[in-house]
Amino acid sequence: MTPVELSRTVLRAVRRAVDGGELSVSVPARVVVAPPGPGGCGDYATNIALQLARPAGQPPLRVAELLRSHLLDAHGITDVVVTGPGFINISLQTSADAGLVEEIRRRGRRYGFADASTGQLSQLHAAHELRALVVADAVGRILRSQGALVRTTCEARPEPEWIDVLGVHVDAYGSPEAPAPLDVTIRPVPVPAAADPLRLGRAAARWALLYPAGHDRPRITDDHLVQREGNPLFRVRYAHARTRALARNAADLHFTAEPGPTPEAGSLLAALADHPRILGAAAAHRSPDRLARHLVTVADAVLPLLPSVLPRGEEKPSAAHRARLALAEATGTVLAGGLSLLGIDAPDHL
Fold this sequence. Notes:
Layout: H1 3-19, E1 44-46, H2 48-56, H3 60-71, E2 77-83, E3 87-92, H4 96-107, E4 121-126, H5 130-145, E5 149-154, H6 160-166, E6 172-173, E7 184-186, H7 201-210, H8 232-252, H9 266-273, H10 275-284, H11 288-302, H12 319-341
Parallel strand pairs: 4-5, 4-7, 5-6
Antiparallel strand pairs: 1-3, 2-3
Helix pairs in contact: 1-3, 2-3, 4-12, 5-10, 8-11, 8-12, 9-11, 10-11, 11-12
């Protein structure tokens, strides 16, 4: 069972509780499942009981126990444990590792994206300043990934080099009049007057402007260009390039990826499973920095795994090698998709 399938299973449990008169609430459109936090257990956990408790007029633990009874009957679930104030922890029958990797392979770079348009129309209005426009552009991309319809405007016409070098796009400029109410005005801490992000090129400049939170001053330095571990952008792009190189090398060795258990990669699997939630939070809070930091987390988690993906010497490819290769390829897909939402390319070679 993949995270998406589990989310739908939990949603069906809510509907059954509502249809059976056990809960009197509006059924949410989506349920978020993520790796268990401290004190949790199992493969995935959800806080849906805490979300429904107040509108249902019942204690969170009572709501959690109601949903637990329905989830225990669901195919593919072996155990459901309620912890803390009402977190529902779910153990799956089949390998959660393989299910997650299969889901990423199926969705490709759209892993974590909404299944369909929500119909929500958001208008982002940016100050006439380079960082504001880059942030608005990235926020628009992330919102679209979550099913929103997005219109971006700017206080004045963007400078031509902002468009040519950094790829910013706005639908209109001038007055923020639009067919929808103004959603939010993008005004992060601007680029220092003496700094010139354009000299860094598109990838490094966009990263320098998007990686810090909006209330933090960006650092426009050559550190974003150096190819070493201290540069977070390099680590993300290097991790992606390594996964692509492993896929090429595996093809030369005539063995293919096959999802399976990878217990040694717990932190990486947790980060990949958390990717849809991160995209949703980045969209809700209009904060592409959340996605940028998450990509660094994913890259740092996969790099220690990569030396063990291919067989060494006379060693024959095993099921463990195939599973690690599938996980590495899935990780590369997530890194490439995340960078794309930030407007940054993911080269296969570095």
